[in-house]
Amino acid sequence: MRTLLITGPGGSGRTTVSAATALTAARDGVETLVLSADRTDALGAALGVPTGAEPVCVAPRLTAWRPDAAAGFRADLAAFQDRAGTVLDLLGASRLDTEEVTPLPGAEELALLRALRDAALSERFELLVVDLPPAPQALALLALPEELRRYLRRLLPPERQAARALRPVLGRLAGVPMPAEWLYETAARWDVELAAVAAVVADPGTRVRLVAEPGPAGADAVRSAALGLALRGLAVECLVAGRVLPETAADSWLAAPVAQQRKTLDEWRETYTVHPAPHLGRDPRGLDDLAALAVPGVHPAAAPVEWPVTDRLAEDGVLVWHIPLPGAIREELDLIRLGDELAVTAGPFRRVVPLPSALRRCTVGGAALRDGELRIRFAPDPALWPRER
Question: How far is the first Cα of the chain from the last one, in angstroms, to the nearest whole number?
Answer without folding.
Answer: 49
